[in-house]
Amino acid sequence: MKLLSLTFVFFATVLTNCQEEVQSSDITKIEFGTSFGMCAGYCTKTLTLTNDLAQKTVTPRVNQNLEEKTCSTIYSGFNSLSAKIDRQAFLELEETIGCPDCADGGAEWIEITTPEGSKRVTFEYGKEPGAVKSFIGELRKYYDQLGECN
């Protein structure tokens, strides 16, 4: 009986781990962005990553003589990036953490989309929550790589 119980626990653990991997691969889009309320120029910037594309959009504040710009490049790291995301930990985060863009400190946000829907988490610029530390570096890298879409 003890052996049967241990066998059941083993297979339950294996199935749970497999299920988590499938959930990570269900991610269809990852977005990352920054915004600054008190700025001149392009104050809101958004990076969108999908299975084969990295796209960045930079948006100016209202009443500035600037137009929104978008640039894109081929992106092959989506599956690798998705695998780094602990989806359950991300889903457990509050939608707003800290005081994003208070005292013009800026805000960052991450949105993860799956077939079931999407969740966005916004936090103070440069003060990411622990649940995103495993993958935010890669988001910031592609974000910086695309620059201002010149």
What does this structure look like?
The chain contains 4 helices and 7 strands; from the N terminus they run αββββααβββα. With 150 residues, it is of the alpha+beta class. It has a 7-stranded mixed β-sheet, with helices on one face. Strand 1 and strand 2 form a beta hairpin. Residues 3-24 have low confidence and may be disordered.
Q: From the alpha carbons, calculate the radius of gyration and give it in angstroms.
A: 19 Å
Percentage of residues in strands: 25-35%
- The SSE order reads HEEEEHHEEEH
Query: Would you report the number of β strands?
Result: 7
What best-fitting shape do the alpha-carbon axes yield?
globular
Q: Strands across the major sheet, in which order? A: 4-3-2-1-6-7-5
Give the terminus-to-terminus CA distance.
Answer: 68 Å
What share of residues is helical? 25-40%
Structural class: alpha+beta
- Give the overall pLDDT as a whole number: 84
Q: Report the biggest beta sheet as strand number plus sense, adding barrel if it closes.
A: 7 strands, mixed
In short:
This protein is an alpha+beta fold and 150 residues long. It has helices at 2-25, 78-83, 87-91, 133-145; strands at residues 29-35, 42-49, 53-60, 69-74, 96-97, 107-114, 117-124.
